[in-house]
Amino acid sequence: MRRLWIAVAFLAAVFAATLVNSHYLKTFSTELTSLLTQAESLAERGEWSEAESLTQQALASWEEHDLYLYTMLRHSDTDQVHSVLEFIRCEEGGEYSAANARLVSQIELLYEMEEFSLKNLL
């Protein structure tokens, strides 16, 4: 009977860790997408330096969480954040907008892949 309770406690701990991970990733991805969306609107108005500043903040936040991201997510998903800065520095509106939209979409997908939901369980 003792082994059963140990197994139940272990499963409960894994379940709790899954919920914490999902919540943390949702908060983090919402913060990043908010910064990148604001940067996009600034770039559309021609305020490139402010847009670059917000993108740098998003990149800094990404790099602060590097260990977590490389541990918990697929490595190919974590390498795309650096490409957006190249377009913003060149002030290429169309290419920046497309790259930024792809990045925002990719970050939203990161959360959706880790979200605790029925479709992810099946």
Description:
The protein has helices at 2-44, 48-64, 66-72, 83-90, 93-114, 118-121. It has 122 residues and is mainly α. 17% of the residues are buried. The mean pLDDT is 82.
Count of individual helical segments: 6
Number of strands: 0
Termini separation comes to 30 Å
Q: Mean pLDDT across all residues, rounded?
A: 82
Radius of gyration computed on alpha carbons: 18 Å
Main pleated-sheet profile: none
Fraction of helical residues: over 70%
> Outline, from the CA principal axes?
elongated
Based on secondary structure, the structural category is mainly alpha
Strand percentage: under 5%
Layout: helices, strands, pairs:
Layout: H1 2-44, H2 48-64, H3 66-72, H4 83-90, H5 93-114, H6 118-121
Helix pairs in contact: 1-2, 1-5, 2-4, 4-5
Provide a brief overview of the structure.
The protein is mostly helical.
Main features:
122 residues, mainly alpha, 6 helices, elongated
